[in-house]
Amino acid sequence: MESPLTAAEPMLWSGWGDPAKAAELPAPVRDLLAQLLGVRAPATPAATFGEVRLPPVALPPPLLAALAAIVGDEHVRADDDARIRHTRGKSTPDLLLMRAGDASDAPDAVVLPGSHDEVAAVLRLCAEHRVAVVPFGGGTSVVGGLVAARCGSEGGFTGVVALDLARLNRLVSVDPVSMIAELEPGLRAPQAEQLLTAHGLTLGHFPQSYEYATLGGFAAARSSGQASAGYGRFDDMVAGMTVATPRGTLEIGRAPKSAAGPDLRQVFLGSEGAFGVITSLRLRVRRAPAVRAYEGWRFAGFAEGAAAMRRLAQQEAPPPTVLRLSDETETMVGLAKPTDLGAAGRDSGCLLVAGFEGSTGDVAYRRDLAAAVLVEAGGVHLGPEPGDAWAQGRFSAPYLRDSLLAAGATVETLETACFWSNLPRLYDAVRLALLGALGSPLVMCHISHVYATGASLYFTVVTAQTGDPLGQWAAAKRAANEAIVQAGGTISHHHGVGRDHREAYAAEIGDLGGEILRGVKERLDPAGILNPGVLIP
């Protein structure tokens, strides 16, 4: 087994990522937000770490001692620091609550198992004593996926533990003949890439949460990376897995494809920790690319750019590795390059970024093929600068959100997907719903994941905070969810269901679909301890 050379640093407790990268918006940007949206600095400053309000630890000392007997005293933490850092995820409502000093949803303890057997033993103990368990990877959920229901029909628990998988962080094996690597779920994506790079390999999975999300989280939420056009979604990469449940262990996946009944991998991919805890992943890997090249193209409008993307996705030749299109508003604001937000208004039309990864010859061949299609579709080549700028700032947008929240703006993202023929209707429906719910917000959108049959839509919304920003966003989110369902989109392409999408997910799968999920839950987790309140309608 191989462990990463660098340790994973903790995320900012009340925001995103590296605390050193948190920055105040430049004065010209604050002035622009005030003029366009009426954004004003919050009346109350954000709470400091010492001002955070925590509920008392509910777990009795004998249970804490029993957990420590399984994983070791040093791996059961009930201190304020551990509890606060494992409170909720990183959605805008999550961050607004933390900035207000509200940690009422904090777990009672954080448990860090070091092996599959320890995970299984913790689940057995918690099921016996009715302790809710929230599997915790990088803590990057933006759909309320890390808040356990403590009471009501789903609750009545003795307490809640966050099951942090950070110690399960090893590369177990590499099969270079089959191009399969076995890795543990607590590896953060950069650590996994570091370990695979030593073998000349890559996963090719680079979502916006890349710097902090874990492999287990990718699988549990059906993550899709920014290079999905070339490498596929994360669930496409999962050849097999080991899962611990309160009822026992499952070993799933022994061949690339099988006709031996329904594929049980699909039960746990996207399950968000409600059915079991993934303790090992056998993943399809690729050879690390020799060349990475990104470039920009301009299209007159979003419809023209989307049509060009569809042609690339449906052609017989492989599409670009990265393919994303910003609508007119996102292009005007310059959100494709978050670090240069102040340079808004430079470009008209819509910016398309195309990226190519592979050998020198393969990259050149695919660039030429794509260029022919894009030119014929009306695209204007902008050269490498816009593509390189996007690549350099591709993980910066969450930091920008923190800066906007601090300035007094409500800013959040949501995403969906549908078939190509329905894309214009879905795009208009969600935009109109957000405009109707928020008055005069800034609504931006891009397409970042394409398939032969359809694509995703990723919206970013910015508006001035009201006196009740949580209620403000809740109303907008309800309106957007209803619009997505009514317009025929899926409630989530890659963020997952969590708690925020549960009602809309129920509408999407219907009553019988909900019964099926509840039946699986009752069989695998009869005590209902695994992430209660998440996913299951």
Automatic annotation (TrEMBL):
Keywords: FAD, Flavoprotein. The active site is at Y458. Substrate binds at R401. The record marks R324 as: Important for enzyme activity. Its cofactor is FAD. The keyword Membrane does not apply. One of its GO terms (molecular function) is FAD binding. The keyword Flavoprotein applies. FAD binds at P135, F136, G137, G138, G139, T140, S141, E272, G273, A274, F275, G276, V277, I278. InterPro entries: Alkyl-DHAP_Synthase (IPR025650), FAD-bd_oxidored_4_C (IPR004113), FAD-bd_PCMH (IPR016166), FAD-bd_PCMH-like_sf (IPR036318), FAD-bd_PCMH_sub2 (IPR016169), FAD-linked_Oxase-like_C (IPR016164), Oxid_FAD_bind_N (IPR006094), Vanillyl_alc_oxidase_C-sub2 (IPR016171). GO terms for biological process: lipid biosynthetic process. Residues 103-288 form the FAD-binding PCMH-type domain. Belongs to the FAD-binding oxidoreductase/transferase type 4 family. This is Alkyldihydroxyacetonephosphate synthase.
